[in-house]
Amino acid sequence: MDAPIHPDLYSRELLMLQGDHRSAHIWDGELLSQTLRARRADDLWDFLHDRVLHERVVHRLQAMGFYRIIEIGRIQVDWALITALIERWLLEMHTFHLPIGEATATLQDVEVLYGMPANGMAVSLPIAMRYMSRDHYLDMLHQLTGFRPQDEAASSGASRLALTPIRQHLELLHPDITDDTEEDHITHYTRLLLLLLFGWVLFPNTSGNLVSLRFLHHLQLLDELSYYSWGVVVLGYMYRQMCRESMATQRDVCGFMLLLQVWAWERFLQFQPPRPQLPPTIAPPFLPLARRWVLRRILLREYDAHHNLPLCRDVLDMLEGAQQG
Fold first, then answer.
1. Distance of alpha carbon 325 from alpha carbon 323, whole angstroms
2. Considering the entire predicted model, what is its pTM?
3. Distances in Å between the alpha carbon of 79 and those of 119, 140, 141, 196, 258?
4. Mean per-residue pLDDT for 187-199?
5. Are strands 210-212 and 160-162 parallel, antiparallel or unpaired?
6. Is the CB of residue 175 less than 8 Å from the CB of residue 194?
7. What are 91-100's contacts with CB under 8 Å, separation 24+?
8. Residue 95 carries which DSSP code?
């Protein structure tokens, strides 16, 4: 006699939150067409699209280790694929539950795919900064960047600031960045650009337009940014957001979803976009590996994402070991 099929969990002893998980509602016929999406996911890339960063700013970003992310730039995200993966995210294990076993993005993936260091000093916060008032944060922002928003509505709570005023200020500063610009102005511009990178790419929240001013602590000494283990905090933040997003009540997704997208491309052959052969004049890109998807996508002009949630679910349901990269 064939062994009985158990499509549901054998035991809920370890998965204490399964009752509120998205997968439980999908099993009951709910949320079948609801795709998670991020708000304002492309704002930084829109800002950089028509602007070439001055080489002095580029050199600063390269020394800090963040220019790789800007260089890789925009990648079209398949929100159906992201949703299908998060539906399989186990909060208790921090892994994706797949037919071939458990899988997850690791610190090695963060380092290999996007070049963010997994070793170094912890990205921690002095206790005193947790109790700073809004005015103290804005004073610190003005001291480090020369910018202070005029509209009080730009602030959210004590430590968060809207990104739109920062972008508007950078649009005014950008034409003035030349070979003769004072070093202080280059530093101010770089700090503000990093706030956009943090708030719109690496650590976005569900609003899609806020950044934590607590990062100013680390932006005080730009030359020391490369000594921090940014890969650890980026991955940890993405894990935390996927735990929140895997609950049935959530509709918005945030965190570094570009990392999750490229990780899925590298791991599962069925989700990989077509990669045309590079011309002989172009050397294959090495690390970080995310560069190779962008370079080949430019040749293809545009990645035609599936955007098909039932298809992505079916592909994950039918995974076999040989189909994993």
1. 6
2. 0.89
3. 31, 37, 34, 22, 11
4. 97
5. antiparallel
6. no
7. 91/17, 91/21, 91/243, 91/246, 92/14, 92/15, 92/16, 92/17, 94/239, 94/243, 98/316, 98/319, 99/316, 99/317, 99/318, 99/319, 99/320, 100/319, 100/320, 100/321, 100/324
8. E
Tens of pLDDT, residue by residue over 95-130, are 999 988 899 999 999 999 999 999 999 999 888 888
The 8-class DSSP code of residue 200 comes to I
Nearest by Cα to 288 from 234, 243, 239: 234
What is the identity of the amino acid at 148?
Answer: R
The whole-angstrom separation of Cα 198 and Cα 186 is: 18
Three-state DSSP state, 156: strand
Q: State how far the Cα of 59 lies from the Cα of 67, in Å rounded to an integer.
A: 8
Q: How far is CA 250 from CA 73, 95, 206, in A?
A: 27, 19, 10
Structure tokens at 305: 């994402």
Give, in order, the Cα–Cα distances in Å from 297 to each of 261, 269, 303.
Answer: 14, 16, 6
Do the beta carbons of residue 177 and residue 56 sit within 8 Å?
yes
Q: List Cβ neighbours of 249 (8 Å cut-off, separation of 6 or more).
A: 20
